[in-house]
Predict the 3D structure of the following.
Amino acid sequence: MTARWIVITVALGVSLPAFADPVPMIPPPYEYRPPSVTPLVLDDDDRSVLEQGEISNGQTIVGGVAAILVGFGIGQSIEGRWLERGWMFTVVDTGAVALEAAGVIEVFSRGCNHACENRGLTMLGTAAAIELGSRILQTWDAFTGPEAHNRRVHELRARTGLTRIVPYVSPTGVGLGIGLQM
């Protein structure tokens, strides 16, 4: 009779866990798989924009004034954007100056008749028009380009999780305003 009790006890001991409440299975450490995360891939241009950071209001103002007074992409260079667009203005302004020099040489050459004088004046007028158009475009770009650049910096920071929240206090018409700037 003792043998029967042993078999029953073993049978009950093996079958009881099947009727118990299910216990959640915790996988061993080597089986853990974190949720899939897509790695963020930034190209060289995005990385350089993030490294440069935002263009300040002071840089924008000084760059715009330099674009008006000097030209040659100096305003974009002050803003740190010469490789983006400033080089184009440097090339165009240098070409315009070369055309002006050729026009002056043509007009004031010794054996110049009416035809070569007209050709020289046409060169001078064309160079002046190119210079004026270039100066208008680079001034516009120097004042509006930083806003687009800063927007891109903010978008990249948000995409990479590098956003900065800065508290600020600013005067208003009736008191002070407080807030957070991202």
